[in-house]
Specification:
Order of helices and strands: HEEHEEHH
Oligomer: single chain
Helix content: 40-55%
Largest sheet: 4 strands, antiparallel
Radius of gyration: 13 Å
Structural class: alpha+beta
Strand content: 5-15%
Strand order of the largest sheet: 1-2-4-3
Shape: globular
Length: 120
C-alpha cells in the first residue's frame, strides 16, 4: 500500500513540476526515496502550508533539513493513510497552489489516480 501511495505522490509532483515550475521530489532517484513520506521542493511552500491548514484542515510537513525550508514540504503516505486520503490531500495542495497563484503543471490528480488504479 505504501509503495502505491508513494508512487502516486511522485506522479503528482512530476506533473506539477512540468514547465519549469521548480516543483520536484527532493530525492531525484525513485529507488532511493522513502515509501513513508515524500520531501518536495515547492516554491511558496510556507504560504501553501498555511493555506492548506487554515482553509482545508490539512497539515503538511515542514521542510525539515531542507536548504530552503520555506520552499519545501513533506507529504506523508504512511501508517493508516489510504488512497482517498492521499487523493484528497493532493487535491487540497492543488487548490491551494491555484488560490495562491503558485505556478504548477496540469494533470497531477489524473496522474496520481492512474497510479492508484494500476493503469500506469
Amino acid at each position: 500500500r505504501h509503495e502505491g501511495l508513494a508512487r502516486a505522490t511522485w506522479a503528482a509532483l512530476e506533473a506539477w513540476g512540468q514547465g519549469g515550475t521548480g516543483i520536484a521530489p527532493v530525492q531525484g532517484v525513485p529507488a532511493a526515496r522513502a515509501r513513508a513520506v515524500t520531501a518536495a521542493i515547492l516554491p511558496g511552500a510556507a504560504r501553501l502550508r498555511a493555506w492548506t491548514a487554515s482553509e482545508a484542515g490539512v497539515t503538511l510537513g515542514i521542510g525539515l533539513g531542507a536548504a530552503d525550508p520555506d520552499n519545501a514540504l513533506r507529504i506523508a503516505h504512511m501508517g493508516y493513510a489510504n488512497a482517498p486520503q492521499l487523493l484528497g490531500t493532493l487535491a487540497v495542495i492543488e487548490a491551494g497552489m491555484t488560490a495562491l497563484g503558485i505556478p504548477h503543471g496540469p494533470g497531477a490528480l489524473d496522474a496520481a489516480a492512474r497510479v492508484i488504479s494500476g493503469a500506469s
